[in-house]
Design a protein that fits this description.
- The complex is a heterodimer of chains A (479) and B (67).
- Chain A has 479 residues and is an all-alpha fold.
- Chain A has one domain: Up-down Bundle (Cytochrome C Oxidase, Chain A).
- Chain A contains 16 helices and no strands.
- In chain A, helix 2 packs antiparallel against helix 15 (418-459) and helix 13 (342-372) packs antiparallel against helix 14 (379-412).
- In chain B, strands 1-2 form a two-stranded antiparallel sheet.
- Chain B folds into two domains: 1-33; 36-67, no CATH class.
- Chain B has helices spanning 4-30, 52-62, and strands at residues 36-38, 43-45.
- The chains are: A mainly alpha (479), B mainly alpha (67).
- Chains A and B meet through helix 3, helix 6, helix 7 and helix 8 of A and helix 1 and helix 2 of B.
């Protein structure tokens, strides 16, 4: 197999613009703009829920924003607002570029994107009104779920056309991960809806189905979206072929075949057959092979420079670390300490924010100059965004992990009383709130930079880059 | 991986296997179980919450904490 095509001058972001980029500009910028808006909304909700954990009376009189609802809204807006919009925009762009021809079916992308965001908006309003479900990552009310399935399928049309209409028979790792994410998500979501919302299974079996969906959404949808971007951008920016690329297919199929079986990871000790938890332990351990292949293939990211690579390097590191932690905490002896504590929240943040979001940030920094045909409006805002997000994320993960471990030890201590356990957590929870505020500020800078960049692009009547070029392209700044 | 239909079939099989193994497998083992009436305790298990517990469950569900 051959590696993804590599440009001779990967730093020349605006010189790399092709008709593939310009024709897809409108729909993809709409999706990216929506994604960043949802990221800010989820950030505000994240700050609110974080404050409520150490100051329970905060907004307690506002039924729309009690902790349960605000937490569900924060998670849903993050996953279905930010990650879904950004992920599909990135995947469609990558598939278009790999196909070698301009994307077709872009009206479907716009149409699906509008209805997807409408569905998420209605879903959040529904959650605020108390119509949420009780399943993790599936809290959106059931009356918007069907709309989401059809909207995603509609947006995916352009990706499918790009894949089937590609100029070469060869397929690359980016293809596999991108197409898998496009196809598997609607199947996964519709199956979960049937067994959890429309014709729900009985009793404890709902926990099994919810675990299957939550782990499936991570391993078969969000992770492939991010890896599609990483496998495309890393060789492009570093200018090197991926080492040990012949193992990439094995890594992909390991994730796809094994990922769905890890759903029992959160059910250890529950009122369920023991084989479900044992299966989770075995599959989480087997999945380490996927992470090993990823390290083999993408280790060249360590030597690369540039804004995109810095984000992707962080994201890949978090992805691998998250996989190792998942495998370790799946074992019963460790799960007894970490389950039902903030440590689990730290693992979720490591996966969703540390891995997926950071890789998406890197991809956005890489693709926006190519979509707009202009460099980012401000390299200062970009650098500030990177610093704030990294500081906020590290602070968030450390405070949650330390707090979670302390909580786990306290909960196992029969003499510890509940108010004391909460008292021990206070400092960590305050630290987590500070981290959420820092993350929100960082993401606000990205949003401002995005708006300025796209506005400058829209207002430009003639190609300006030959005459006016801000300090440098973001890709070029750190080079 | 040149064959698109084969690739899609692989994805479908992968998803179906995990769904069938984990969800259908567990359902086959537990799904048919009925509540158990314990003559010694004169009650049915699992017991349905009553009184204050049932009202608390409704309040929790309304606030989005559980359902």
């Amino acid at each position: 197999m051959i590696n993804a095509p590599i440009t001779a001058r990967p730093d020349a972001a605006t010189a790399d613009v092709t008709a593939i980029d310009t024709t897809a500009r409108g729909p993809l910028l709409f999706l990216l703009g929506s994604a960043l808006s949802w990221l800010l909304i989820s950030g505000v909700l994240g700050v609110i829920t974080s404050i409520q954990l150490h100051t329970p009376h905060f907004l307690a009189d506002c039924p729309w924003l009690t902790y349960g609802r605000a937490q569900a809204m924060a998670e849903s807006s993050f996953v279905y607002g930010w990650a879904a919009n950004a992920g599909i925009a990135i995947v469609l762009w990558v598939l278009g570029r790999l196909s070698g021809t301009p994307l077709r079916g872009l009206n479907w992308v716009l149409f699906g994107g509008v209805f997807w965001n409408l569905g998420v908006t209605l879903g959040l309003i529904g959650i605020a009104m108390g119509d949420m479900t009780s399943f993790a990552l599936l809290e959106l009310p059931r009356y918007v779920q069907v709309l989401l399935v059809f909207s995603w399928a509609t947006m995916s049309v352009a990706g499918v056309l790009a894949w089937t209409g590609r100029r070469t028979e060869l397929t690359y790792a980016s293809h596999w991960y991108g197409v898998a994410a496009l196809f598997l998500f609607p199947w996964l979501l519709s199956a979960a809806q049937v067994i959890l919302l429309w014709s729900p299974l009985r009793g404890a079996l709902q926990a099994v189905a919810a675990g299957w969906y939550a782990q499936g959404a991570w391993t078969l949808w969000l992770a492939p979206l991010a890896l599609c971007a990483a496998y495309y951008i890393v060789p492009k920016v570093t200018g090197r072929t991926l080492p040990s690329y012949e193992f990439a297919a094995l890594g992909f199929w390991t994730l796809v075949f094994i990922g769905g079986w890890t759903g029992g990871r959160h059910l250890i000790g529950g009122p369920l057959p023991a084989w479900i938890a044992t299966m989770a332990i075995v599959t989480c351990s087997l999945l380490l092979f996927h992470y090993f292949v990823l390290v083999l293939n993408l280790r060249i990211v360590v030597g690369g420079g540039g804004m995109a690579i810095k984000f992707i390097r962080f994201g890949l590191g978090a992805y691998v670390l998250g996989g190792v932690l998942d495998a370790l905490t799946a074992f019963r002896g460790i799960a007894v300490e970490t389950q039902f504590t903030l440590f689990t929240t730290a693992q979720e943040q490591l996966a969703l924010y540390g891995a997926v979001t950071m890789i998406f940030f890197g991809a956005i920094y890489f693709m926006l100059p190519r979509l707009t045909g202009r460099p980012w409006a401000s390299s200062g805002l970009a650098v500030s965004h990177r610093l704030l997000v990294k500081v906020g994320l590290v602070l968030l993960l450390v405070t949650l992990a330390v707090g979670g471990w302390t909580q786990g030890v306290d909960l196992l201590n029969a003499k510890a009383v509940f108010p004391d356990i909460l008292g021990h957590l206070n400092l960590c929870l305050l630290g987590a709130t500070v981290a959420q505020v820092v993350l929100l500020l960082g993401n606000l800078l990205l949003f401002v930079n995005f708006c300025r960049s796209t506005a400058a692009s829209a207002l430009a009547l003639v190609p300006m880059q030959a005459f006016f070029r801000p300090t440098a392209t973001v890709e070029g700044v750190a080079r | 991986m040149k064959s698109g239909p084969l690739f899609l079939l692989g994805l479908l099989v992968a998803l179906t296997l995990s769904w069938a193994g984990l969800v259908l497998g567990a359902n086959g083992q537990l799904g048919h179980l009925m509540p158990y009436y314990d003559e010694g305790e004169s009650g049915t298990f699992p017991a349905r919450p009553s009184g204050l517990a049932a009202r608390g469950q409704l309040v929790y569900a309304d606030l989005g904490c559980a359902a």
